[in-house]
Amino acid sequence: MAKLPHTAYNEGMAIQAIQRFLCILVIGLSVAITASAEERLVLWDPPFAVKFVEGEEELAQRAIEALQGGLAELESRLQAGDEPIRVALCDTLFDFRRFAGPLAVSEVGGIARPAEGLIAVKAPHLLRRPGEFDAILRHELVHVLLERNTDTTRLPKWLNEGLAMTLAREHRWNSMWIVAQMYARGQIIPYRDLEFALAAPGSETGFGSAYAQSLSMTRHLLGLVGEDVVWQVVEDLNEMSFGDALRKRAGFGPVEFFESWKRSLWKVAFVLSLVSGFGVFQFMAILAVLGYVRKQRQGAAIMRRWDAEVDDRDGDDEPEAYEEGDEDDEYAWFDGEEEEWF
Hints:
Layout: H1 4-36, E1 40-45, E2 48-53, H2 57-74, E3 85-90, H3 93-100, E4 110-113, E5 118-122, H4 133-149, H5 157-167, H6 174-184, H7 191-199, H8 204-225, H9 227-236, H10 242-250, H11 254-276, H12 280-295, H13 297-314
Parallel strand pairs: 2-3, 3-5
Antiparallel strand pairs: 1-2, 4-5
Helix pairs in contact: 2-4, 4-5, 5-8, 6-8, 6-11, 8-9, 9-10, 11-12, 12-13
């Protein structure tokens, strides 16, 4: 009987804690709804219609300048067409999630729905690297322009993303390091799986690896055949497959190109090993790669043996797993209420 008051006291404290939690939750939801309900304005500068919250006029003007500048650089290759390009400047994570859904993670600063002519980007204060705001806008603009100028169902996603990163001048110096590590560890994503890795990113690590590989492959293609040939291939996709267009313009197919790209990676891995201070086992793995270049089959066997030793030293560095997704979907979109924006 003496424990009853103590039990009642504990129950009372628990009830108060729950009440405080619910109060904080209600306040948080109220703030989110209030922020979402702020008046939005539209800045028109054809073909762009930029929608933003009141008080962000300077940011909207900056977005227009970045988009018009990007369009001016690309219009000789990619035409905007007659339809407007709508741009949503998202001032809160709640608003960005309406457009990006499951892609609304910290590493994603913008998304595009090319077929709808829609771009949604985070405001600079929401970005991990605010200085990339203009580049993100240009990147998403490229996706929309490609949709309007070629058959993107025939355009490989790695080239779509690679062109977007290249034309947006996203240098991404760390991409070379990522690809070199993937190569040394035997984690290069097979050509047939790259489409699925980009269509359904399961984690930020896999997402970054697939994008780094796409950028590296695009740079290699541009270096092999030149910018004019690449754009001829892109234009030909309105009438034929990517493989046929590549063979027509460059004289080789996707498989031959992919093998050529992989053969070129030993140079990148070797140079980076010299300037980055690899560990002993990692450096020996690079030497094994060089052995592969010199002796083909014998070198390949040496590479596999050293890669196994590197993996043992590195612990649980296992190759990423990529789940097969829908090849026809550019993104796994969230069915939000973005209609309220426009």
